[in-house]
Design goal:
13 helices, binds adenosine-5'-triphosphate, alpha+beta, seven-stranded mixed beta sheet
Length: 450
């Protein structure tokens, strides 16, 4: 099912995933704070990306550049001159529009007449140092990519990487967006995960296709349904002047198909620009062919916030459960903020010491949560709604047989396993083993009766 955006926003707030920034002061538009669950979700997304793209590859290294950079970087990259959107105001209702969102020069809200478009630079400007003068102008980076280009020679010299190889970076980016909205889809402060993959000219289109496929598959590996993802190839006439090809990975968000990630063949544009402006040689000597050339670059550029939104939308589900509706997030175990909840059947003092002992054993290896408030049914619902894949219940029988139940979020089925087998069993289930596979001494419990 496709959840409405307002329903998701309210779940995120109610359960501590995402809050409006500066809410007690009326909110800061297009800025969001990730709460106790949101911060874990985001870390898991970043971890998954870093693992797949850096740690598991021989041809990639990581980088973490400063957000403030020399102003000349943004002159060379073209951002100072051209990172701008056309801005138009409605003369009737005063609403402000981005040129791309307008057709026939009429206000999309009231049909009123619009002002002539004015170009508006999206970079946040500030000053480095105590004096607020033109010479001290600095920008908050609008993308992480440029830090990679300006460190290209440093990385080649220090790692002796040979082409093709890539540099990956994730971190905050800032854009003073004209139109915002759609929750965390378009923020003024957000996080990016970017790769610049340097290749020999001539092999660029082959690598471009490779990266489109790799990146598409990464989203499905996180559990996002294939039907909700599509590729949109940019037509040649719509490409940026430096790009040879560009394909967006789009997701079917509640407001419709929208960009999740862009993959572009940026040719040698960026390295040549930085060479020209800095006076430093950014060419590469190819020891295999004894040639010197400026590499071409393939750029897969993704947003962490948009990925988080796609994951939450995709995982949201509702199903009838007796007289009620069960709301659940069917999150992939790698992404779920809490993997296991430890729940004593009740607040009975006899159960609590054993439940805490079980939690202490589990938490050393698995991100888990202990909860003994409210009735067990309500606690299961709460865990379903935040997307916890497994709950472990300690009941009165546990005190006798030293065994506990594991309840699976998606099927609500339960198995009973000896405490000694618990951590290993949970680890195997979180790695994809079906619930039906029992550990030594384990047995079927609720949901298996028929
Ligand atoms: P859009 O057309 O939606 O503004 P874009 O084409 O300008 O996006 P890029 O410059 O290609 O975006 O940035 C790469 C990725 O960074 C995007 O695919 C998106 O995931 C993320 N991103 C860009 N702008 C924002 C924003 N304002 N808020 C959240 N994420 C963003």
């Amino acid at each position: 099912m496709k959840v409405a955006m307002d329903k998701l926003v309210s779940l995120c707030k109610r359960r501590g995933y995402i809050f409006q920034s500066s809410e007690i002061y009326g909110g800061m538009s297009a800025c969001w704070d990730y709460g106790p669950l949101g911060v874990e979700l985001k870390r898991n997304i970043k971890e998954a990306w870093w693992h797949a793209n850096v740690r598991e590859r021989d041809d990639m290294v990581g980088l973490d550049c400063s957000i403030l950079m020399h102003r000349a970087v943004w002159a060379a990259s073209g951002h100072e001159e051209g990172f701008a959107d056309p801005l138009m105001d409605c003369k009737a209702c005063r609403q402000r529009w981005r040129g791309d969102d307008v057709t026939d020069n009429r206000c999309p809200a009231c049909g009123g007449e619009l002002t002539e478009p004015r170009m508006f630079n999206l970079m946040f400007k500030t000053f480095a140092g105590p004096v607020e003068e033109e010479a001290a102008t600095a920008y908050l980076r609008p993308e992480t990519a440029q830090g990679i280009f300006v460190n290209f020679a440093n990385v080649v010299d220090t790692t002796r990487k040979r082409l093709p190889f890539g540099i990956a970076q994730m971190g905050k980016a800032f854009r003073n967006e004209i139109t915002t909205g759609n929750f965390i889809f378009r923020c003024r402060e957000f996080e990016q995960m970017e790769i610049e993959y340097f290749v020999k000219p001539g092999s660029d289109e082959q690598w471009f296709k490779y990266w489109v496929e790799q990146r598409f598959n990464w989203y499905t590996s996180l559990g996002i349904k294939k039907d909700n993802l599509r590729l949109r190839e940019h037509e040649k006439k719509d490409l940026a002047h430096y790009a040879r090809s560009c394909t967006d990975i789009e997701y079917l968000f509640p407001m419709g198909w929208s960009e999740l990630e862009g993959i572009a063949n940026r040719t040698d544009f960026d390295l040549i620009q930085h060479s020209k402006h800095s006076g430093k040689d950014l060419s590469y000597f190819d020891p295999d062919t004894n040639e010197r050339y400026v590499p071409y670059v393939i750029e897969p550029s993704a947003g962490i916030d948009r990925t988080a939104l796609a994951i939450l939308v995709d995982a949201y589900d509702e199903e009838p459960d007796k007289d009620e509706i069960r709301v659940l997030l069917r999150l992939h175990p790698d992404i779920a903020p809490v993997k296991v909840a430890i729940l004593p059947l009740s607040k009975n003092q006899k159960l609590i010491p054993m439940a805490k002992e079980v939690h202490n054993a589990v938490r050393k290896r698995i991100t888990s949560m202990y909860d003994d408030t409210q009735s067990i049914g309500r606690r299961y619902r709460r865990q379903d709604e935040i997307g916890t894949p497994y709950s472990v219940t300690v009941d009165f029988e546990s005190l006798e047989d030293n065994a506990v139940t594991i309840r699976e979020r998606d099927s609500m089925k339960q198995i009973r396993v000896p405490v000694a087998e618990l951590v290993g069993t949970l680890e195997r289930k979180l790695s994809g083993e079906p619930l039906e596979v029992l550990p030594p001494g384990g047995k079927y419990w609720l949901g298996f009766e028929e």
